[in-house]
Give the backbone structure.
Amino acid sequence: MNSSSVGKTETKILKYNGTIELSSGIEFGPIDIAYETYGSLNENADNAILVLHALTGDAHAAGYHNITDKKPGWWNDMIGPEKAFDTNKYFIVSSNMLGGCSGTTGPSSINPQTGKPYGLSFPVITIEDAVKVQKILVDFLGIKKLIVAGGSMGGMQALEWSVSFPDYVSKAIIIASTSRLTAQGIAFNAVGRNAILSDINFNNGDYYDKKYPEQGLSVARMIGHITYLCEESMHKKFGRRLQNKDKPDFDLGIDFQVESYLQHQGHTFVERFDANSYLYITKAVDYFDLSEKYGSLENAFKQTNASFLIICFSSDWLFPVSQSKEITKALVKVGKDVSFCEIESPCGHDAFLLEFKTQTEIIKSFLKRDI
Amino acid sequence: MNSSSVGKTETKILKYNGTIELSSGIEFGPIDIAYETYGSLNENADNAILVLHALTGDAHAAGYHNITDKKPGWWNDMIGPEKAFDTNKYFIVSSNMLGGCSGTTGPSSINPQTGKPYGLSFPVITIEDAVKVQKILVDFLGIKKLIVAGGSMGGMQALEWSVSFPDYVSKAIIIASTSRLTAQGIAFNAVGRNAILSDINFNNGDYYDKKYPEQGLSVARMIGHITYLCEESMHKKFGRRLQNKDKPDFDLGIDFQVESYLQHQGHTFVERFDANSYLYITKAVDYFDLSEKYGSLENAFKQTNASFLIICFSSDWLFPVSQSKEITKALVKVGKDVSFCEIESPCGHDAFLLEFKTQTEIIKSFLKRDI
């Protein structure tokens, strides 16, 4: 355990017995919300930071659940005493997204009306819906003012927070993110979904007590992984090196290290993630489009009262720098306070989970400005 | 039918009853070689151009097989009277690659020893092996000197020709190609193969009289298609436009045009291509590495006697411009005659099949130089 870690943490569940109106018009509930908190809320209840996870994340953002855990929470490098999100100063909240599979209600949860998992009877959700659910949690915790921060899909949620709850959000930190996916981004998600939907074990989403559609989910994850890296990082990490051999095998098995890595990523992902959740959450990501919803990005941002920090990474081709610049320009155009920072990194989209030193400096200085 | 088309064409089969030694050391034969020719071989037998197809191409490069055909051969825009490859001057030869599924022996061919399709008993082949088979065809046709030309995997074969048969190849036209795939390129191929191998109907490659592994092959093709385009071309072609609707459906089906396009590409591909061939040919592409084989790219090129034309496209991220520059630099370094041309194009890797006007000018002027 790292000495500056938040230490032992645990995921709690807030059981919300009401319903929310989803973007689709459907009233949905009850909803379990899985969350963790680190640090303490101050008297004014205005020192909270909501960190928002990416596609396959969960509420466990920092610390260790058990002394035997090999890995800490997914943003442990960023959350803790004197870290970017300093638990000595801030009350950090992290929750699993609606539609997820790590405690918050999603397609693998039991539908109380049937006593069986929702499966494909789970309603299609949006980033806006996920944010509505987070608002329930934040209200429950008694938070009055909020800083929101997230990378990738987490950044989409942070953007949505700043637009949906303008009187609530004081600062928004948007990392390696976008106000809308590119056509290429939709395409990669669509192929991943296709791999899952066409797995013989998918069984129309009803597989929870049967064979799991692991091959399809594994292929979807492999596709995703290629997009999270970039050619430069793949070249450095693997190049054309063979996997434990001097010469290729001249068979159809694995020859190159990069193949072995991807297959491993696919296999381990299947153990921790639900195929239906993958379908629903990628769909939510595809749907997210602030400019479509408000007519233009400028229109969307007119109502925000937050200060923005936009961070992007030079080698990120999934959520490219140009998209972060687009957000920044729109914010400037409507007179909002915005800091933009492009970090030179060879790590591709994954940089937001890796380049924590540079991010820490930038985020600390942004947070320091008026607290 | 286009007036400057080569008109009605047909695929012939050369039945080679000998064997060749494959890169793996295996002696393999007999081999059927499917080919087409356009134009006439001159008396000196030195006006031949061998055009080499990309991953999923075939021998049918130009003209129409039937008056009712909707589509001509795959490079019809480039082959014909007064076209880039001018059939008034040149004798154009095109053949299906070893391991393919359009007439040349491949995994779907009948193994004469068993009377059944080879399936996965087909040997793993390389680009070098494919070129060896083409040499048999070229000798059979009585060709004494050869110009080789190809895009993508076709360019790899053209490079291999110029290195393997230095006294034979007078000119080599290498389009949107590389001397070795990037780690990212291998990764995309590996995921595609994985999708096929994990299809329940794949049945260890023995599916010819059973259910076809169409879902896996379709996913592999979709992945491929994303890499053949680029974000710019996808943005122009599809953007975030919805498919025949004003609002998203809020279900897990197809919402965006780009999804519909990819699914269509996947479905139609399954009708014309063999899943086993996809495995074998992508593996051959992964293995190809001139610098690994000869110690360095310079070493590989030392023995060539060809003049080279290297064409690449600005938006091609699968076979990026940097790789064409690498080839060019190596050729220059060992004193070879080389012309390099980067074409500004928004069409991604697919540009070699689309940007035929610019390519025609460049290729014509290159071919004119001393014939």
User: Anything to note?
Assistant: The longest helix of chain B spans residues 257-272. Chain B touches chain A through 59 residues (CB under 8 Å).
